[in-house]
Amino acid sequence: MLSLKNISKYYQAGGNKTYVLNNVSLDVDAGEFVSIMGPSGSGKSTLLNIIGMLDEPSEGYHYFMKEAVHQLKEKARSALYKEYIGFVFQAYHLIDELTVYENIETPLIYQNIKSSERKALVADMLDRFQIVGKKDLFPAQLSGGQQQLVGIARALITKPRVILADEPTGNLNSKQGEEIMELFRKLNKEDKVTIIQVTHSEKNAEYGTRIINVLDGKIDSSRNV
Ligand SMILES: Nc1ncnc2c1ncn2[C@@H]1O[C@H](COP(=O)(O)OP(=O)(O)OP(=O)(O)O)[C@@H](O)[C@H]1O
Fold first, then answer.
1. How far from 224 is each of 31, 137, 168, 186, CA to CA, in Å?
2. Which domains does the chain have, with CATH numbers?
3. Which amino acid residue places its CA nearest to atom 24 of ligand 1?
4. Interface TM-score (ipTM) > 0.90
5. pTM
6. Got the DSSP string for 55-104?
7. How far does residue 21's CA lie from ligand 1's centre (Å)?
């Protein structure tokens, strides 16, 4: 499903190249649940952003759903992203001017789903996350954990085949965090959603089926759980 071959990402600073990712190769099959771990600054988010086509590598080959992503133009890349990927960000990236309801609805509008169907899908999601009572509030009126839940609800609303999550439980209390991990496990096992998450938590990492350790911009080790 996903194949990165010899991917590097560097920044040019005064004639010197600083490598954030250095010659990373990684294959992920459909149906896997991969956890990416590693120290702060090791390149985890950069790797996830490249996988999610939000960032471009400096070098290397990137295949996703049999498409050569490194050869695609911006528009085709973004179409591919919209069709398959749901992204859960560390900072929730909610739209401040939109209510909880509207934030969750937005990806469906981009997919041209008709209004009555959108209503049913959003209602379902609000229910599932027990945030029906918050639907008319704006992000600033929510706690960090609630904003995170809305961000996750928004990522899941289009039923993506792949979920990419950067510290998805970072702002949740331990019970909410466990609920999200259980939800991911269920999506992975029952709905066959492929999940790739970045996490600092060993406990969360073990919800995955494979743990990859990134160190200094390289894949240091990989083990099946
Ligand atoms: N635009 C940029 N210019 C220069 N360096 C950058 C830029 N963006 C990111 N970096 C560097 O890339 C390195 C890796 O960042 P990245 O966010 O991928 O790490 P991370 O492993 O996800 O860290 P954390 O766990 O703290 O989120 C960092 O040292 C960062 O300073």
1. 14, 42, 21, 18
2. 2-224 (3.40.50.300)
3. 40
4. yes
5. 0.90
6. S--SEEEEEETTEEGGG--HHHHHHHHHHHEEEE-SS----TTS-HHHHH
7. 10
